[in-house]
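Hey, I'm writing a tutorial for new members on how sequence and structure tokens pair up, and I'd like a real worked example in the thread rather than a made-up one. If someone can provide the structure for the chain below, I'll link this post from the tutorial.
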Amino acid sequence: MLRAGLLVAVALVAATARADARGYQLLAQGAKQPAPLVVALQCYGCSPTDLLRGLDLEALARRHGFVVAVPVGHTDSHGLPFWNATDACCDFDGRKPDDVGYVMGVIDELVKKRVADPKRVYLVGFSNGGFLAHRLACDHAGAIAAIVSIGGGAPQS
């Protein structure tokens, strides 16, 4: 649950991502735009807002003038959210959704709308989200300035 008064604007934005139209949550802190963008990628079995709360990204974004995009993972046959990051983690049902295309679509849309500065796009991922952060940084090195992976590994080459 969001604390009242913390956010200047909170919007659920319908993404025009290449993979699908799951949408994403955008926490816009009233930063001068285009602003640095942090994309928060949750762990397997975690809700999209768990990482926001755990790292207190709302307060950090407000204090440092960046925006946060929170994409939405798929739900597996056990009802748990996941990202299709690598063969190691975590598409255990073998559905093969294009989460790389989806997250890049979110980033591309925010850059196109001049919400995000294309030279300052950062990813933070926890566990399965960390796997996806590594994957995105490898597959789209020119679009990602840096990542923070908390407990997620890099793809094997």
